[in-house]
Task: inverse folding
């Protein structure tokens, strides 16, 4: 059987459950080496059951790649949760079509609907050339479903079709779920409830940490499925911590409230053990001030914040980072434009009240005036801008004037969100990033320009010549290219619009059909961005490429750094409140727990030094900080 001398005792305990055909949960806090245990257990199953296939499913493509790098075998299939589900159901096209129609017509299912909530006829999907498809986007009329719909459809199919459950368990006698806490509850029900109906149920194993469930659409914990009965999950706790020094482990234990208490690793080779075999002490600081500027904080801790691989400043939101990193206007356009919010308000009013109105050839102002005409004041309030929208309009009168004169059908069709601006951010300059991107065509075009400038500045001339849309055929054209690129490198006060035009004229990056289409369809967005200085996009580029120390607190989950500075600012996000955490507001339980978990994740990223900065804390916050951090580690920066 298993080579016991090569396995940790937690892995041995899990493997004993596997031999008995029991489902299991390996719970481990931050830095406990859960992925290492996952690899141990996968290898043990491969050695002992060489004819059996194993499915290992996880939340992200990055996690998939990490597992594949650590263990590879023909019998092991590693994929994202969505890839796994689609791979299992995609060939059952008849059942897929039936299930989709049932869900569309099910009034209790709000996730899958035709436009205008129309009912689906039984022959809706009969003439699809490619059948039901799974894509990055949703076009339900064409039989195309996306991420959210896939999970709902798969759950319904496994609930309805016992044969599908039999096929899945026969194909994969072992299914392991990494970072289970981020998994949708419907997926967990498929694995533990529906697959259990099979004549020969498989073994399902979960790896993760309930305390690190920081996404609202994840199940969070498996408390409803734990127990000793058939089909239930048997928990094994992994209590050692290999990453964090003692002071951070102690702080993390104070934050946990689920009964799992960590202790330092007893492995002398662990990163948090020194050369003498003792656990590293580490350093933790709680810093506060009546001044929100973090420059004094950075000076006090004395870390090298230019080294983005070793040192991170963690903020709750991208909006909080944008001002510090220098791309605040770009972020406002993509994630804070309340004029566009007003357009959505008007559009929603028309839809919700089933108003028949001809919008063709009418400006936005004409449509609004038409709606307001003859209405009582109480009804006009529902059409006019809210107080927050009015403030934004007063701050950006030119943009509002622009929108008022735009065709209603054009401005009301614009969709924009922050992912189109800041998706696929790298954690540091060596990070490969993710394969796909939600970035829009304007950001992609600007990114290409700045990337070509970077290649030239770094003297990577061969890569530069391949990347540019300019053919060097003589000494004269080479001189011409150098003159053009030097003019762009010396950007000075040029706007983004000017740089786009110059890059096109010089052949550095030609304006293509995608950018032209973006400009025509999203003129309001394009015009605003084009008026900004190009240096602001360069700041965004530095952030996206990992040249800055900034990161959102959610983005760093699963990572580790020598030095971590956590900024405790809610950023006007009502889902979080750091004051509630330190004062333990029991009447705000959901916000409290959500904040506790994100703070736990942030603190446990630090391998050596942790500093937390709180702007204008209440006395009760300071008292709790002294309890958690130690009085000697709580510092009032105003007294220095």
Result:
């Amino acid at each position: 059987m298993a080579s016991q001398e090569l396995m940790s005792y937690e892995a041995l305990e899990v493997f004993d459950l596997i031999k008995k055909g029991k489902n299991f949960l390996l719970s481990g806090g931050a830095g406990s080496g859960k992925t290492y245990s996952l690899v141990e257990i996968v290898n043990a199953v491969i050695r002992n059951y060489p004819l059996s296939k194993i499915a290992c499913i996880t939340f992200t493509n990055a996690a998939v790649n990490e597992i594949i790098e650590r263990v590879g075998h023909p019998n092991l299939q590693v994929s994202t949760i969505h890839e796994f589900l689609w791979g299992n159901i995609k060939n059952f096209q008849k059942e897929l079509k039936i299930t989709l129609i049932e869900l569309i017509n099910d009034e209790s299912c709000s996730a899958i609907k035709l436009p205008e909530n129309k009912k689906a006829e039984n022959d809706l999907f009969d003439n699809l050339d490619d059948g039901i498809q799974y894509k990055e986007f949703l076009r339900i009329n064409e039989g195309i479903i996306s991420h959210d719909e896939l999970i709902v459809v798969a759950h319904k199919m496994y609930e309805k079709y016992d044969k599908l459950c039999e096929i899945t368990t026969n194909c994969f006698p072992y299914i392991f779920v990494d970072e289970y806490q981020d998994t949708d509850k419907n997926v967990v029900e498929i694995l533990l409830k529906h697959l259990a109906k099979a004549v020969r149920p498989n073994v399902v194993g979960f790896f993760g940490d309930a305390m690190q469930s920081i996404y609202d659409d994840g199940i969070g914990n498996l408390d409803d499925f734990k127990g000793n009965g058939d089909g239930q999950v048997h928990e094994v706790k992994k209590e050692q911590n290999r990453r964090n020094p003692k002071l951070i482990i102690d702080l993390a234990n104070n934050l946990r409230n689920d009964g799992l208490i960590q202790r330092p690793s007893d492995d002398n080779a662990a990163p948090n053990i020194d050369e003498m075999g003792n656990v590293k002490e580490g350093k933790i600081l709680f810093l506060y001030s009546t001044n929100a500027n973090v420059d004094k904080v950075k000076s006090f801790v004395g870390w090298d914040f230019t080294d983005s691989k070793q040192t991170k400043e963690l903020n709750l939101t991208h909006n909080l980072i944008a001002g510090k990193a220098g791309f605040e206007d770009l972020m406002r356009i993509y994630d804070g434009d309340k004029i566009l919010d007003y357009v959505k308000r008007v559009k929603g009013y028309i839809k919700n009240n089933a108003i028949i109105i001809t919008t063709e050839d009418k400006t936005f102002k004409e449509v609004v005036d038409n709606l307001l005409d003859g209405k009582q004041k109480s009804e006009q309030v529902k059409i006019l801008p809210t107080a927050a929208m009015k403030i934004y309009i007063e701050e950006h009168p030119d943009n509002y004037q622009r929108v008022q004169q735009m065709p209603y059908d054009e401005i009301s069709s614009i969709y924009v969100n922050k992912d189109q601006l800041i998706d696929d951010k790298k954690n540091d300059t060596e990070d490969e990033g993710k394969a796909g991107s939600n970035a829009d065509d304007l950001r992609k075009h600007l990114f290409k320009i700045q990337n070509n400038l970077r290649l030239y500045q770094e003297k990577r001339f061969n890569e530069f010549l391949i990347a540019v849309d300019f053919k060097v055929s003589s000494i004269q054209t080479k001189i011409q290219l150098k003159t053009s690129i030097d003019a762009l490198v010396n950007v000075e006060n040029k706007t983004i619009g000017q740089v786009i035009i110059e890059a096109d004229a010089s052949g550095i990056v030609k304006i293509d059909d995608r950018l032209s289409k973006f400009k025509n369809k999203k003129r309001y967005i394009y015009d605003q961005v084009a008026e900004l200085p190009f240096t602001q996009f360069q700041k965004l580029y530095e952030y996206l490429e990992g040249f800055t120390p900034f990161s959102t607190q959610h983005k760093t989950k699963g990572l580790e750094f020598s030095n971590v500075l956590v900024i405790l600012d809610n950023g006007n996000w009502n889902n979080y409140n750091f004051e509630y955490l330190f004062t333990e507001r029991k009447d705000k339980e959901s916000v409290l727990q959500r904040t506790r978990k994100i703070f736990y994740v942030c603190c446990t990223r630090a391998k050596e030094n942790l500093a937390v900065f709180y702007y204008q804390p209440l006395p009760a916050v300071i008292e709790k900080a002294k309890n958690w951090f130690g009085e000697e580690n709580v510092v009032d920066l105003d007294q220095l």
